[in-house]
Give the backbone structure.
Amino acid sequence: MQPYPGLLIAAARRAIKQAVLARIAGRQLTAQQFWLVIGVDEHPGISQAELAGRVRADPPAVSRALATLAERGIVRSDPDPDDRRRTCVHLTQAGRRLARDLEPLAREIREAVVAGMSAEEVATLTAALQRVVTNLDRLERRSSARERASQA
């Protein structure tokens, strides 16, 4: 009997989170903050909305996590000169130092996730997971639409 894919996805998510937490113990970071620092390091000047999309997190949760990182002097948010409604996120000097320490940990975790897989297997897995996310986003939109319709 093959395990339900959703349970395997949940188990993989938990395992990745535990791997991150084990490697960042003592750094006063959450797993989400870890990935946000890595994301900003890899994409300097990324908008908060784009960053939330990259880490597949709720924009308000990303905003709160970035506010905490800003209070600690790790990131700063600047208005986009081309669009004042948009905020661009950058690492501070302390944030860049932290990112240099975290980069090998992120690389180790990313490599562990796909260890032993061929490039074709990684591409297939990525496509399948993107389909799962798309399907669940569609489900959520339908559910939200039904809820709005029932309240009208």
User: Anything to note?
Assistant: The chain has six helices and three strands. The mean pLDDT is 93. The chain has two domains: 5-113, 118-152. Residues 119-151 form the longest helix (33 residues).
